[in-house]
Amino acid sequence: MIGRPMKTAPYGTLHTSTAAMFGVLITLDATAMHGTVPDEIDPPAARGAYAVQTTPDGDGIITSWIEAGQSPGVVEIRFSRLSSDPDDSTRLVWSPAATMAAGDDLFANWADRPAIHRGVDGALIGHRLRKIGVGTYAYGVMLSRSEDEGRTWSDLGWLHDDEKAVEHGFVSAVPTGEGLRYVWLDGRQMTPGSGHGGHGHDATGAMSLRTANLDPESDSKTITSTALDARVCECCDTDVAMTTEGPVVVYRDRGPNEERDIFIVRETPDGWTTPMPVARDGWVFPACPVNGPSVAAVGAEVVVAWFTAAGEEGPRVLANRSDDGGRTFSNPVTVARSTIGRTDVLMLPGGDAVVLWIDRREPASSGFAAPVDDRDELGSIALRRFPRDGSLGPVSLLEVMDLGRRAGFPRMELLPADENTGRGPVLLLVWRDEANDRLRSRSIPLEDLQ
Fold first, then answer.
1. pTM, entire model
2. Which regions of 327-425 does DSSP assign to beta strands (E)?
3. Predicted pLDDT at 197
4. Does residue 15 fall inside a structural domain?
5. What is the DSSP letter of 4?
6. What is the rounded distance in angstroms from the CA atom of residue 342 to the CA atom of residue 356?
């Protein structure tokens, strides 16, 4: 349950280091002190936890993950909420970890991650991936609801209105005035290939993008989904954000010649728009790169960040902006080049954005490396500010990050300012530390992010 928080310790800030490829590199000094904002506040996850996901929750942040269960073959979806300590509001603390679901029928994967959102009526709504066939990737999205802050959960049923034994996943959601708007990849048009359960290029048919709205009265019998795009990338994250005009959805498309560009669809009073490209990268790739886009919005301002390897410029992270709710976009800017992608993006008070990615460079400070580290490929979690004027701030290389799959996708959320204590907004990073086999998190006062 989300109950009484557990206290944690030290504090930290950002320090500027030497100039590098994209201007000034910034590293995080773990020994420094700054105000009363904890620098290192690791989630209460068991060793071996992975598939971390974060969602904003008013004055807190909900973080979920997967960890091994008590019995062989059983996995658990666990979660905790970060917020101000009720006994000492100058501190940020995690609630005790609780379980959303457990079983031997859950599909557990580094890329396709469960999550928990706050519903419009105050209940917690979780989604998990449950096997619905014998194929490796034959699984569906099961919704659950808790009305007691996560102490107990009851299933609502499948998110999708089919139970075909193929892939349904890569879910994203955003609260709207009518409920929770869900978006996911849906394989109902596919016939499973050899050993991939509708998840590979040996399958026939196409992966589609679908959406449904979950209101407080919804259950498995009342959810009706709508197709948004009939042919999309099979295993790249989707993302959705809310504008003043309605939700906007971004995803990696799959063109007729295997182009893997980023597209957007918007909900308007007249329904969903025809899919359109956020930009024309022209990245031709014969498989799914497992590297979807990210979107954030405030009012009518929208920012999208994504990975591409199109053309002679090679692998890079791009971002662009819209000031009309996603109808049109500026030309993309190159945020980073030495990268494997796995982006995230946030909008800040005032309209600036922050883009996160995994960089192939390690932080300049050797203090970030583990004492004994035998990992083959190391990089870092990187951030960069993307102001409203289209310029770019310095690159911040924050933490050593394994480049392998199991390390997964680092996530970030913005914790709002606390008027009672005068604490300003805080950026929370959560990731899997592969060397130490655990989840880590770090908070950064927004004033320290250049």
1. 0.89
2. 333-336, 339-347, 353-359, 378-386, 395-402, 411-415
3. 40
4. no
5. S
6. 8
